[in-house]
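User: quick one, fold this
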Amino acid sequence: MKIQLPSSVLLVIDIQSRLMPAIANEKEVVGNATKLLMASRLLDVPTLVTEQNPNGLGSTVPELATGHARTVFKDTFDACEEPGFMELLPDAAKVIVVGCEAHVCVMQTVLGLLAQGRDVAVTSDAIGSRTSGNRDAALNRMARHGADLVTTEMVLFEWLQSSRHEHFKPVLDLVR
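Assistant:
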């Protein structure tokens, strides 16, 4: 099933300043998450950002700190277990997930969302871990449990649906 713009929500998990230098392919993860965040702002996609223990891991990286998204501070690895988090997600939304670390907070949150009957798409080129082995194992596990694995460009062009979309050119510029 295609990702529909009106029923999407973008969830950015723990892309934080002190964590990112340790993440394999950090630039690709941050770059793709930034593209999705910029497009979400342009296309009015609701966006949530989580920060895991910001005193220890720092705040969200500057590229993603746009003020467009609502930030949820958490101590739990699974954001779904953070009080009030689930109430921030629209009921019928397809949750588009980006973030770190793939095998910890991303995976536990995705599994939590799936357990609650949510429709989840994990943007595989916008999630990271310190090692590619942990990232790959997390992607495999999330897919086995029912998450769709997608890429940044899949999400962007499914949101647009057509080159006639009024925001086609600015979104296209994000991927060039």
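User: anything notable?
Assistant: The chain is about 35% helix and 20% strand.
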